[in-house]
Amino acid sequence: MDLDTLKAGGKAALARALAEIERHPDAPETVALLDQAYQAPTAHVVGMTGPPGVGKSTLMNALIGGWRKSGRRVACIAVDPSSRRSGGALLGDRTRLSTDPEDQGIFVRSMAARDRLGGLAGLTVSAMVLMRALYDIVLIETVGVGQSETDVAGVADTVLFCVQPGSGDSLQFMKAGIAEIPHVVVVTKADMEQAAQRARSDVLGALSLGGADGADGWTVPVLMVSSLRQDGLDQLIAAIDDHRAFLEGSGRLVDARHGQAALWLCEAVRERWGREGIRRAGDLSLPPGESPFSRLATVNTRLGCA
Ligand code: GDP
């Protein structure tokens, strides 16, 4: 299948392509499709993380609704850490999201987190690259357990971190040293007004202490959103767009995506061939503009034959 066929085939074709990538990740057709998609990105990739219960799925539903209203097409990947140990690949639409199955402008996939890329499913990066060439927004949700905040930064252009009022999340945020990761902080359940205000000041304090805020020219907005009342949603969507414009304006988007792809390549080699493989592979640098998928295929062939 090539990218044009995939574009013409809608959600059913994408589901088939994802199944194919999972079954035959090394097949030349798979690699060729991923190369094509890698070279033709259209979407803004948004990562969302935060502890269980903070309100991520509710917010995802609200965001999807907001984006759809303005005609944007959205693909979602929900990474499920609970299936981490089973190692099985379980794809299926997540029931927590209530989207219209008839709407061709929404595609939802949940994936089991495995150890590749420290917790994001092995398929996540390939799926993201494919969706990035087909949709306007790719939203990746992971539960904030340990590493996943950093993992999502390895695949997303813009990272949202969700904090719940009155939960101590903002303290956690300070301690865990993750203050430099998010580009937008969302205080959820802002209908709990006083607690939300307090959480917001705590996060603002943590950001200024961490010194991350504004360090690269981007000031991290801390927004209060009530998905329940649909308050603050437009501001959140605008902040996500602002970050995208910031990245594009400064040429950072291309650099950041290249950095992610280069890192993914090393991780993929390490995953398959171990540290010894990294040593044997020698130069694993990824020239700017080159797809990591064909590069990985070349390395795999070389290591397999050596
Ligand atoms: P997740 O585990 O982070 O995906 O969180 P959920 O989206 O499942 O939400 C957890 C709980 O918080 C549910 O009971 C939601 O109804 C509730 N919740 C989500 N958003 C809001 C909100 O904006 N205001 C209030 N008061 N409750 C909310």
UniProtKB/TrEMBL annotation:
Pfam families: MeaB. GO terms for molecular function: GTP binding; GTPase activity. Belongs to the SIMIBI class G3E GTPase family. ArgK/MeaB subfamily. This is ArgK protein. GO terms for cellular component: cytoplasm. InterPro entries: AAA+_ATPase, GTPase_ArgK, P-loop_NTPase. Residues 42-191 form the AAA+ ATPase domain. SMART domains: AAA (SM00382).
